[in-house]
C-alpha cells in the first residue's frame, strides 16, 4: 500500500480548479488528506476564463488518488462566501491543517512589457484584487481554524522566488506588484503564525505545464516534449503535480517550521525531499533561468532536470 503520511489531515486548496491548484490538491489526496477545493468554476458555473475545468473534476481526481476530495464553489473576493467555507470546514472537520492560497485568475488581465501608464487600468486593478485581496480575505477567515491544531501549514503560491524576483522586472507593473505582495504575505504570516505554532511559506513552481500552457503549444501532458522544437527552453517545464508533491512533502515534514517565512521553489524542494515529477526527473527551473541569463550560448535544459 502506498504510504499516506497525511492521512487524517484536512487541507483547503483555494483556487483548485486547474493548474497548480489542481496539482496540489491531487498530490495532497495521494498523501491521504481530505482536501477541500474552492474556486469559481464549478458544474454549471464558468469563471472569467470561460474554461471547461471544474472543481468537481478536481475533487474526483483527489479521491481517485487516495484522498477525499470535496468541491466547494466560492468567490474569494466575497468575504461572506469565504466565511461560509470556513464555517463548513469547522462543522465537518473541527479544524484545518493545511491552507494553500493559490488564487490567481489574472492570466487575461496583464500585458507583457506594457508600462503602467499605457496598461488598461481596470484590468490592472482587477488583477491586484484577484491576486492580493483574495489571499487576505482567505487568511482572515481560515487561519483561526488552522491555529486550532498544532503544526499547521500555510502555503502562499506565487511566481518566482524572493531572490529571483528581487532583481528582475516581472512582465508588467501590475504582475510584478502582485507576485511581490504574495511573497511578503508569506514573510508577514511567518511572523504572525510562527509564535503560535504554525508555519507559512511562499512557494513557486517553475515553468508549469498548466492546461492553458499545453493548449498554447498545441500539445498534451503526454506529448509536451514536441513543443521544445519551437521553444527549446520548454524543456525545463514541469507538470502541476510536481509543485503539488512539493506541498505534500512540506506538509508531511515534522520540521517544516525551519522554512517559516521563507520563499521556496518546487525544484529546490525536490532536491531537499527527493520527490520527482511524473517522468522521474527533478526540473529546477529557477537555477536554469539564472544560468541561461549568464550564458554565452544555448543552455541545455536536460542538465537541470
Describe this structure in words.
This protein has 305 residues and is of the alpha/beta class. A 7-stranded parallel β-sheet has the order 3-2-1-4-5-6-7, with helices on both faces. It is globular and about 55 Å long. Helix 1 (19-30) packs across helix 8. The model has no long low-confidence stretch (mean pLDDT 95). It contains 10 helices and 7 strands.
Features:
single chain; 305 residues; alpha/beta; 7-stranded parallel sheet; 10 helices; globular
Task: Summarize the structure in short.
Helices cover 42% and strands 11% of the residues. The protein contains 10 helices and 7 strands. The protein has helices spanning 19-30, 55-65, 79-93, 121-146, 162-166, 173-193, 211-217, 240-252, 266-273, 285-293; strands at 10-14, 34-39, 68-73, 98-101, 153-157, 199-204, 263-265.
Give the termini distance in whole angstroms. 28 Å
- Rg (CA only): 18 Å
The amount of beta strand, in percent, is 5-15%
Number of helices in the DSSP assignment: 10
Spell the H/E element sequence: EHEHEHEHEHHEHHEHH
Q: What multimeric state do the chains show?
A: single chain
Mean pLDDT over all positions: 95
Structural class: alpha/beta
Task: Give the number of DSSP strands.
Answer: 7
Strand and helix map with partners:
Layout (H helix, E strand, L loop, with lengths): L9 E5 L4 H12 L3 E6 L15 H11 L2 E6 L5 H15 L4 E4 L19 H26 L6 E5 L4 H5 L6 H21 L5 E6 L6 H7 L22 H13 L10 E3 H8 L11 H9 L12
Helix pairs in contact: 1-2, 1-8, 3-4, 4-6, 8-9
Protein name: SDR family oxidoreductase
Organism: Kitasatospora putterlickiae
InterPro entries: NAD(P)-bd_dom_sf, SDR_fam
Amino acid at each position: 500500500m502506498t504510504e499516506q503520511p497525511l492521512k487524517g489531515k484536512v487541507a483547503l486548496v483555494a483556487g483548485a480548479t486547474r493548474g497548480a491548484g489542481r496539482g496540489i490538491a491531487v498530490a495532497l489526496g495521494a498523501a491521504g488528506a481530505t482536501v477541500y477545493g474552492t474556486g469559481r468554476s464549478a458544474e454549471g458555473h464558468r469563471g472569467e476564463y470561460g474554461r471547461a475545468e471544474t472543481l468537481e473534476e478536481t475533487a474526483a481526481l483527489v479521491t481517485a488518488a487516495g484522498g477525499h476530495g470535496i468541491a466547494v464553489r466560492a468567490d474569494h473576493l466575497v468575504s461572506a462566501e469565504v466565511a461560509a467555507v470556513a464555517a463548513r470546514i469547522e462543522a465537518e472537520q473541527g479544524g484545518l491543517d493545511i491552507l494553500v492560497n493559490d488564487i490567481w485568475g489574472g492570466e487575461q488581465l496583464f500585458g507583457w512589457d506594457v508600462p503602467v501608464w499605457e496598461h488598461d487600468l481596470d484590468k490592472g486593478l482587477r488583477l491586484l484584487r484577484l491576486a492580493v485581496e483574495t489571499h487576505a480575505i482567505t487568511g482572515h477567515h481560515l487561519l483561526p481554524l488552522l491555529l486550532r491544531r498544532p503544526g499547521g501549514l500555510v502555503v502562499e503560491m506565487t511566481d518566482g522566488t524572493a531572490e529571483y524576483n528581487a532583481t528582475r522586472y516581472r512582465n508588467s507593473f501590475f504582475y510584478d506588484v502582485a507576485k511581490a505582495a504574495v511573497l511578503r504575505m508569506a514573510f508577514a504570516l511567518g511572523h504572525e503564525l510562527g509564535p503560535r505554532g504554525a508555519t507559512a511559506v511562499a512557494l513557486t513552481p517553475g515553468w508549469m505545464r498548466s492546461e492553458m500552457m499545453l493548449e498554447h503549444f498545441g500539445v498534451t501532458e503526454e506529448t509536451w516534449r514536441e513543443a521544445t522544437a519551437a521553444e527549446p527552453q520548454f524543456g525545463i517545464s514541469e507538470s502541476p503535480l510536481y509543485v503539488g508533491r512539493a506541498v505534500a512533502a512540506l506538509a508531511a515534514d515534522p520540521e517544516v517550521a525551519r522554512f517559516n517565512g521563507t520563499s521556496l521553489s518546487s525544484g529546490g524542494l525536490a532536491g531537499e525531499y527527493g520527490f520527482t515529477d511524473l517522468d522521474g526527473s527533478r526540473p529546477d527551473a529557477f537555477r536554469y533561468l539564472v544560468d541561461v541569463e549568464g550564458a554565452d550560448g544555448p543552455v541545455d535544459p536536460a542538465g537541470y532536470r
